[in-house]
Design goal:
Blueprint (H helix, E strand, L loop, with lengths): L1 H19 L8 H7 L4 H22 L7 H25 L13 H11 L2 H24 L1
Helix pairs in contact: 1-2, 1-6, 2-6, 3-4, 3-5, 4-5
Length: 144
């Protein structure tokens, strides 16, 4: 059901963006969050890395010209580096549960890019709505 979840997430994210004019964190992000809604620690770890990526972007944006493609590439690169650092460092710092991992290495950067373009609260609310809706639709389809 992974492919179906991602496809349903894509469709719902596109519809949401067209109807509300708000990005739910990127087009592919809600589908990936829907895959892990039953494992909230993974979603929390991904949100933490995305927010840290956003903070680093905002710091760098004061000193560099970052917009458009530059912003996107920077947030994806910083998100990827932080995702890998999270994976390597966190278990060594304390006995972390295996579920406290980041969803992919691109997802936090895409989410951070969207957070930089829009208001944080509206982006996260849109992400929660579309990911939950995707999760519900996939569960409903799997029952049929």
């Amino acid at each position: 059901m992974i492919v179906e979840t991602l496809l349903i997430g894509l469709v719902l994210a596109l519809l949401w963006a067209e109807i509300t004019d708000l990005s739910p964190g990127g087009i592919i992000v809600p589908g990936y969050f829907a895959l892990y809604l039953d494992r909230p620690l993974r979603a929390a770890a991904t949100l933490a890395v995305a927010l840290l990526t956003l903070a680093i972007y905002r710091f760098l944006a004061r000193h560099l010209i970052l917009f458009g493609r530059r912003r996107f590439v920077l947030t994806v690169l910083v998100g990827a580096v932080l995702s890998q650092a999270w994976l390597l460092v966190l278990p060594r710092l304390f006995d972390a549960p295996i579920e406290l991992r980041v969803i992919g290495w691109v997802i936090p950067g895409i989410l951070a890019s969207s957070l930089a373009r829009q208001k944080v609260l509206s982006t996260l609310a849109s992400l929660a709505a579309v990911a939950t809706l995707t999760f519900a639709v996939v569960r409903l389809v799997s029952l049929l």
